[in-house]
């Protein structure tokens, strides 16, 4: 069974807080496991999330500000410590490649892992992966920065009733899928007669940037968009000055780009702490995707729920619990509400150590192929 989900390891921006680690996002997409922007403390967050370094197949760095890359030394050294047998590709802005070299060899260690450097040389460069095409687009930030998009190729799904009508089964199904046709006694059956289109899924990752065309290009028709929303609208002028987005802008991008599920992250510490769940000993990292966590503090599945965060999900610490809850709830509500000014799809205001699933493909109406003629 395929697994397609995002594990959120950290959600802070420049400064980590008591409740938010520096950035870190891990995407599981079938056999491809991609670590995006490992900030300081990522190796420990992976441990808390139950993720092994040996799972990684690829690392993508958007840019070399510390909150997006200072976790690289620990992760890279852990790959060698664990003697990971398969190669791990690393993508990063080529113009700042010297930073990757320094971080890769930040201290002495016995290197056994194979790290294959695949720098991004230009806007629009693509890389082929087992999950599809990985695209990099240049963003607008004071240093060279790229966002990433994973695009699964379109395919077709077989229609069992049509296959049965033609008496096609077993190895013949594979042959039909490979060649596009199958010769039966008295006629040729085309793949289009016994299958329907299956659009590929898309994942987009947009970090530090001002609003620009590349942001919309990356987000276009994304099933899951992870996007920075460092500031609220009250600080929009500052956001534009330093090359960041507001929650409202992130919501606008999602709405205009046809995004299905939106994840807001990379929050400025100025807006207060994140809501905290009560710890669950020995349990898996919680899934706050709308299907599993519609009542959680940060999963906001509809516009009507944008202002109704669950107080039960906040921690109940002994010190100033009421005031902490008020501040935490208010901050999450404000980010959600501003995004909701534009976007009415599935929305998650990210917290550290949550999982967000890639939405299942929508069941769309497909024209019924012609009925099979009797043999």
Automatic annotation (TrEMBL):
Chain residue ranges for the region called Disordered: 273-297
Residue ranges constituting the Metallo-beta-lactamase domain according to the UniProt record: 21-201
Keywords: Endonuclease, Hydrolase, Metal-binding, Nuclease, tRNA processing, Zinc
Catalytic residues as annotated in Swiss-Prot or TrEMBL: 67
GO function terms (MF aspect): 3'-tRNA processing endoribonuclease activity
Highest taxon of the lineage: Bacteria
tRNA processing found in the keyword field: yes
Catalysis performed (reactions): Endonucleolytic cleavage of RNA, removing extra 3' nucleotides from tRNA precursor, generating 3' termini of tRNAs. A 3'-hydroxy group is left at the tRNA terminus and a 5'-phosphoryl group is left at the trailer molecule
Signal peptide range: none
Subunit annotation: Homodimer.
Protein name: Ribonuclease Z
Species of the source: Plantactinospora solaniradicis
Annotated gene: rnz
């Amino acid at each position: 069974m395929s697994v397609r989900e995002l594990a959120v390891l950290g959600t802070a921006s420049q400064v980590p807080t008591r409740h938010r680690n520096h950035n870190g996002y891990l995407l599981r997409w079938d056999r491809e496991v991609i670590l995006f922007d490992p900030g300081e403390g990522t190796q420990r967050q992976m441990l808390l999330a139950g993720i092994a370094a040996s799972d990684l197949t690829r690392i993508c760095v958007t840019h070399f500000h510390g909150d997006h890359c200072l976790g690289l030394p620990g992760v890279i050294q852990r790959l060698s410590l664990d003697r990971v047998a398969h190669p791990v590709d690393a993508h990063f802005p080529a113009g700042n490649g010297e930073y990757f070299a320094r971080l890769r060899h930040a201290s002495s260690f016995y290197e056994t892992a194979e790290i294959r450097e695949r720098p991004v040389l230009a806007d629009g460069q693509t890389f082929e992966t087992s999950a599809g095409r990985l695209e990099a687009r240049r963003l607008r930030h004071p240093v060279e920065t790229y966002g990433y998009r994973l695009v699964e190729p379109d395919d077709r799904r077989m229609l069992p009733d049509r296959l049965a009508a033609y008496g096609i089964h077993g190895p013949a199904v594979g042959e039909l899928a490979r060649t596009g046709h199958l010769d039966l006694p008295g006629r040729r059956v085309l793949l289009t007669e016994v299958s329907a289109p299956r659009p590929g899924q898309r994942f987009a990752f947009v970090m530090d940037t001002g609003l620009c065309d590349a942001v919309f290009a990356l987000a276009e028709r994304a099933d899951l968009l992870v996007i920075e929303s460092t500031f609220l609208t009250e600080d929009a002028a500052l956001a534009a000055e330093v090359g960041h987005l507001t929650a409202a802008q992130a919501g606008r991008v999602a709405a205009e780009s046809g995004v299905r599920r939106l994840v807001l992250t990379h929050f400025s510490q100025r807006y207060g702490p994140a809501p905290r769940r009560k710890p669950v000993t020995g349990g898996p990292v919680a899934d706050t995707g709308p299907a599993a966590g519609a009542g959680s503090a940060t999963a906001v599945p509809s516009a009507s729920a944008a202002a109704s965060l669950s107080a039960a999900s906040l921690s109940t610490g002994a010190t100033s619990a009421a005031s902490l809850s008020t501040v935490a709830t208010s901050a999450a509500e404000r980010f959600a509400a501003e995004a909701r000014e534009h976007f009415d799809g599935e929305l998650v205001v990210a917290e550290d150590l949550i999982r967000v699933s890639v939405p299942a493909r929508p069941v769309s109406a497909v024209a019924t192929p012609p009925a099979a003629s009797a043999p």
